[in-house]
Design brief:
The complex is a heterodimer of chains A (135) and B (400).
Chain A: H1 5-16, H2 19-33, E1 56-63, E2 66-73, H3 76-89, H4 94-98, H5 102-108, H6 123-133
Helix pairs in contact in A: 1-3, 2-3
Chain B: H1 11-18, E1 22-23, H2 34-46, H3 57-76, E2 85-88, H4 91-102, E3 111-115, H5 124-133, E4 136-140, H6 150-156, E5 161-167, H7 179-188, E6 192-196, H8 200-203, H9 208-211, E7 215-219, E8 230-234, H10 236-239, E9 252-255, E10 260-262, H11 276-291, H12 294-313, E11 318-320, E12 328-333, H13 338-347, E13 350-351, E14 353-355, H14 360-366, E15 371-375, H15 382-399
Parallel strand pairs in B: 1-13, 3-4, 3-5, 5-6, 6-7
Antiparallel strand pairs in B: 2-8, 7-8, 9-10, 11-12, 12-15, 14-15
Classes of the chains: A alpha+beta (135), B alpha/beta (400).
InterPro entries (chain A): Fe-S_metab-assoc_dom
Domain Fe-S metabolism associated (chain A): 12-130
Protein name (chain A): Fe-S metabolism protein SufE
Amino acid sequence: MTLPANAQHALDAFSAAEGWENRARLLMQWGAQALPELPEALRDEAHRVAGCETAVWLNVEVHDERLRLQAASDARLIRGLLAVLIARVNGLDREALKGIDIHAWFDQLGLARQLSPSRTNGMNAVWQRILTASR
Amino acid sequence: MLPSPWRPDFPALSVMEAAGLTYLDSAATAQKPQSVIDALTGYYTAGTANVHRAGHAVGERVTEAFEATRGTVARWMGAADPAEIVFTRNATEAFNLVAYGLEHRFSAGDEIVISALEHHANLLPWQQLAARSGLTLRVLPLHESGHVDLEQAATVIGDRTRLLAVSQLSNVLGTWQPVQDLIALARQQGALTVIDGAQGAVHQRPDVHALGCDFYVFSGHKLYAPEGVGVLYGRTEALAYLRHWQYGGEMVRHAEYHRADFNPAPLGFEAGTPAIGAVLGLGAAIDYLFRLDPAGVRAHEAALLETLLRGLRTREDVQVLGSPDAALACFTVADVHATDLAYALSEQGIAVRAGRHCATPLYQHLGASGAIRVSLALYNDTEDLDRFFRALDKALNLLK
């Protein structure tokens, strides 16, 4: 399966990054530059992802059968995690979304720990919300 | 260098150290000394039995050890009688027991008083009791330092007050609360008093007799004992006010199909099979604490906290919440999100806690979205803090 172009970029960049500091720098960079930002006006309770210790807002839309995601968070590294998550799934159709192994994706980026069940960063909750909303 | 003479008693510390981990989250749960691990292993190896019912020799031995632990806990915390010690599953269950058990004594318009810094465990049972019974929940305000304002407390605690429930040591601000004075205020009004000792009991051996409270609650797992056991101390007269709340085996004295009557405290509030192993482990933990020099432990923990606070305060943009007296400190950094900081610390093997520490209303009150909590135990040393500060500097360097 070929990766969406943005996902391929992420994979190339993160594979080349060595050590947690470089990965964290990349995350901040992705969060600042590559996150489809949810407009302020939509950062309300309805868009807030429950289960995140940090506030995360997410909007899932389907246009012409394609997923279109926007997200926001006040935390820079969380924005980065959202950006690489969205890079993997934005533009896919529902069928393709079903085939995504999100743990494998974060693992490939060297970010596997960020999806562990004890994490309160909410990436698990964000992923569940994407799956539910796109059904 | 300030080594901890007790660190070798805790095998997990060297295991974590070998894995590059620095444990500074003991306010969430503490590591266990070898003697507690041995007590658990010994219990399961020598043969388990249920307590209070089996007539056989194993049952007798285990029941004896179980009841001896009740005596140990009573002696440790200054209770007059082992029957004043009720074993629960955790501190949360103890608060719920008291809230449900006392419900019949309150009526609409009565007031329950808590403080602004309560953990959810000592907030939600009262909030929900108030909602069920039409009571008013009143909240004691804090000084900037993170201590309950006694002057204001004297105006809040009044003739409608039926119960006061306050924390002894804040799990967010690390501040000792003036519980003695608050208890006196409540008693003047004939109100019952509940002290949350979940953090406090770990850093100062409780003396319920000197405190004069009606109820005192703590959990085993923060006190170097296994999880699965909490303690509710209740003054004999106060325990008698409680209605039974969980029904089943152990707590019943006589049962027929259509009626039953129940044991008094403590067994009447220990429905079902208790966490026998955990209770015995708690006994071992307290025996361990009995063997330590309390002044030495206090001095060590105070020196650690001082080192921690000095390190935090010398760093630019670091803001410590309140004025911690013991055991822990929460801090924020200007323009750095607590979650980002926690991420960077965790990547470096530093186990601290980020978030709102089960005290969401307090954070709303402080106007902070979250903080990092560094919490200490007797097994920590200044090297743990050195590692923490090196990681913190690296994290700030990256994030700022």
